[in-house]
Amino acid sequence: MDISKSLRIFTAAKINLYLEVGAKNLNGYHSLKTIFQSIDLFDQLEISLDLNTQDKNININIENLIYKDALPQNIKENLIYKASKAFFKKAKISNYNLNINLFKNIAVAAGLGGGSADSAGIIFALNYICGEILNQEELLEITKEIGSDVPFCLLGGRMIGTGRGDQLIRLPLRNNLIILLISPPIELETKTKDIYEAYDQFENKIFKPKISFESFVSLLNNAGPEEIRNNLYNSLEEVVINNCFWVEELKSFLESKNINAIISGSGASVFSVFGDVNHAQIIAEELRLKGYKVGIHNCIENPFEIEINS
User: Fold this and answer.
1) Residue 171 bridge partners (DSSP)
2) What is the pTM of this model?
3) Is 194 a residue of the active site?
4) Mind listing the pLDDT tens digit for each residue in 232-289?
5) What is the spatial distance between Cα 12 and Cα 121, in angstroms, rounded to a whole number?
């Protein structure tokens, strides 16, 4: 294979419109019922791949990263590095010189799947550069090696996730949900693994959802944004609140406006949904005046946008 190409790919964040965490299985993972949704908040990766080489080199440069300590200092522990290596192994490519510039816009350690999106994006981009030598099933096999959210981040859109979150069923985008997203002002000290361990201690005290997972799926297909907003749910929220005071303060303010909001994933980003963008903008401006970092986003189907360098 004789390839030397570069491109830019934008990788979409995700939120969890509903997350019900079950008991821990024998494999050490919790069983999940969740609804993933891609939103138009993107990291950007500039990728240059040269296969006209005798090297095995992967270089990753990260820009615009506020919380540098949130990412592994050892490059071999970085999800993008692991995804790149896994792709080359699956594709039987033995020599490569890969350079990646990553520009972070998705908050780190915030429940938005930024690392998963970036690793899914590099798998997709490398396959694109190499002439789509692997099919979707083979790409999904790679993503499952990297992390539970990565398969969804490869496929994108709105999907039911069960098992570890990697058993996926696509849902249609039948309603125009506007997402009001508030990113954490500081990195959440407690990591995902610690949140789930704490959940095991609190499981019997966790507030139950207003409606079942199956009923919420039906709402998504048939109800309006306000009814959907009132039934958003995340099993991990109380655990996150115990570790991150700002979530409780933020939720209390939103509840004073009769707006239900939840964390995404294992936190600490908080979001709510609207049908009227003007209403979302009014609330967003009030939050900004209080010092919160706020964005208004759309739900999207495609998790990637690609630009080919000339």
Assistant:
1) 158
2) 0.93
3) no
4) 999 999 888 887 888 999 999 999 999 999 999 988 899 999 999 999 999 999 999 9
5) 9
Tell me which fold the domain 4-170 belongs to. Ribosomal Protein S5; domain 2 (3.30.230)
Q: With 0-12 CB in 10 A as exposed, 13-18 as middle and 19+ as buried, what is 239? A: buried
Homologous superfamily (CATH) for 178-298: GHMP kinase, C-terminal domain (3.30.70.890)
What residue type is 208 in one-letter code?
K
Closest CA to 142 of 91, 217, 210, 76: 91
Whether residue 118 lies in the annotated active site? no
- Other beta carbons less than 10 A from residue 163's beta carbon: 14
Q: Considering the candidates 43, 118, 149, 166, report the single residue annotated as catalytic.
A: 149
Q: Is 32 exposed, middle or buried (0-12, 13-18, 19+ CB in 10 A)?
A: buried
Which letter does DSSP use for residue 299 in this model? B
d(C-alpha 120, C-alpha 151), whole Å: 7
**How is the chain split into domains, by residue range?**
4-170, 178-298
Judge if the upstream peptide bond of residue 268 is cis by omega within 30 degrees of 0.
Answer: yes
Nearest alpha carbon to residue 265 among 20, 43, 42: 20
Q: Which residue has the tokens 């520009």?
A: 103
Measured distance CA(188)–CA(196) in Å, rounded: 14
Nearest 5°: phi and psi at 191? Answer: -85, 170
- Provide φ and ψ at 222, rounded to 5°: -130, -20
DSSP collapsed to 3 states, 211-272: CCHHHHHHHHHHCCHHHHHHCCEECCHHHHHHHCHHHHHHHHHHHHCCCCCEECCCCCCEEE
Catalytic residue among 14, 82, 104, 251: 14
Residues 118-176 have pLDDT tens digits of 999 999 999 999 999 999 999 999 999 999 999 999 999 999 999 999 999 999 998 88
Amino acid code (one letter) for 205: K
DSSP letters for 93-121: ---EEEEEEEE--SPTTSSS-HHHHHHHH
